[in-house]
Amino acid sequence: MFYRASLQAAAALASLFLLAGCGLLSDSGSEVEQKIVVGTTSEPSTLDPAAAWDNSWELMRNVFQTLVSFPTGSTSPEPDAAEWCKFTDTTSTSYRCKLREGLKFSNGDKLDADAVKYSIDRISEIKFKGGPVGMLGSLDRVETKGDDMVVFHLTKPDATFPFILATPAMSLVAPSAYSRHKIRSDGKITGSGPYLLDSYKPGNRAELVKNPDYKGFADRKNDAVTIRYFKESAPVVAALRKNRIDAIYRGLTAEDVVSLEGNQNKDSKLQIVETVGADIRFLVFNPEDPAAGKVAVRRAIAQLVDRDALVAKVYQGTAEPLYSMVPKGIAGHTTSFFDAYGDPDQDKAKRILAKAGITKPVELTFWFATDRYGSSTAPEFDELKRQLESSGLFRITLKSKPWKIFQEGFTKGQFPVFGRGWFPDFPDADNFIAPFVGKESITGMPYMKDEITREVLPQTRKESDRGAVSKQFERAQKVMVDDVRVLPLWQGKLYVASGEDIGGGERALDPQTVMQLWELYRKASW
């Protein structure tokens, strides 16, 4: 698993969603068309699933099918293109799916077992740099049995494999329309999802219409959706306020949310619902740095950081403190860092350093990306600097670079301490532990911890009942607290605001925080 490289979170909020009404009803109240217009700053980087491990998933979820998916309210994969899927052994190494009858792609081709095998195999064969091939590390081979049965043989037990199959990266494509050896680049899509891509203008809009041949779990509550792409937050918010669009997902600042929540009290037509998100922010410490490499320094910082003040001052309550790498809402979540350190305490931090023989202020440089996690990132690091320096125990220098240069820097081990974000590929504790440990840690620096990589993770991946492995994940988090190689700071929140004429907003975000556009609908005239 690697970081979904292009996914951006305006104002460090992974998933902000706003709805406002602009009527498409006749004066008599009769329905003339169930069409919804949404705006977003989350433009796809590709239309080919074999190259997608980023914000392209937003569009793909709505125009492609996967064998299993996440219906609203579910945190476990459930059948979509498949009639059923299950592990057929006790070690979670053989996963079998039976396809629904009568499936076909938008070009008329049959969606059968061979098409499924082709779709998954081409991801491994193309090996697109920055693409989802890394998600298939446990896959040995794909076998077909007749037209409607697919068997995935794994090299090792991996109960998370169904979650991987549920990601839009594993979308099913028509073999006749997609080369086995290269990415499709003609701006078109041949899928079998709830919608067809009627037209696409990069940087401008995507026009989706209901797929008459779709067979899957999605209960479509509208006939068509127009997605308008914006480069920045201000224009998309302006379009919403002027009723030029019905909805916004991704692209709002914390200030936008606070402002709209305030308007809710003044305008009864605006409704806002808040729920917990799964995107997280954290600090990464370089173990090779003379200062950050000392566990006492890392523990002292963990003892000083005031998460409550951070989210209150910088994010105005649109995020919440995080005391575990596994966020609230995911089975296995704990408050392990709070359990270990409690409230911020300068005296305790001083004693931690003194015990290690550190009596002078520790000088450290903190790095962050200027164009990755939203406009609140710089104020966030200003606040972290203020908190640490006010203790008299640290002297912090802040530096920043654009994401591309920033990424090159931390992968080469150039930064003592730096900020990162993580957006889950699937809602399971494994996806918040495994990516951070081992030789290929997404932090850019190996984190070799046998207790986690050789004991905890292999044990949990044998168990298909994910709720039964919470204790093992709690153990992994305790190990991470002791080492403090990463320090969780906060997790984002999701916001749904709607006008009186738009419904379904509370159901439109799946557990991956990917928009399920079919849930939106225009209410009858009032």
UniProtKB/TrEMBL annotation:
<dbReference type="InterPro" id="IPR039424">
    <property type="entry name" value="SBP_5"/>
</dbReference>
<keyword id="KW-0449">Lipoprotein</keyword>
<protein>
    <submittedName>
        <fullName>Solute-binding transport lipoprotein</fullName>
    </submittedName>
</protein>
<feature type="signal peptide">
    <location>
        <begin position="1"/>
        <end position="20"/>
    </location>
</feature>
<dbReference type="InterPro" id="IPR030678">
    <property type="entry name" value="Peptide/Ni-bd"/>
</dbReference>
<dbReference type="InterPro" id="IPR000914">
    <property type="entry name" value="SBP_5_dom"/>
</dbReference>
<comment type="similarity">
    <text>Belongs to the bacterial solute-binding protein 5 family.</text>
</comment>
<keyword id="KW-0813">Transport</keyword>
<keyword id="KW-0732">Signal</keyword>
<feature type="domain" description="Solute-binding protein family 5">
    <location>
        <begin position="77"/>
        <end position="440"/>
    </location>
</feature>
<dbReference type="Pfam" id="PF00496">
    <property type="entry name" value="SBP_bac_5"/>
</dbReference>
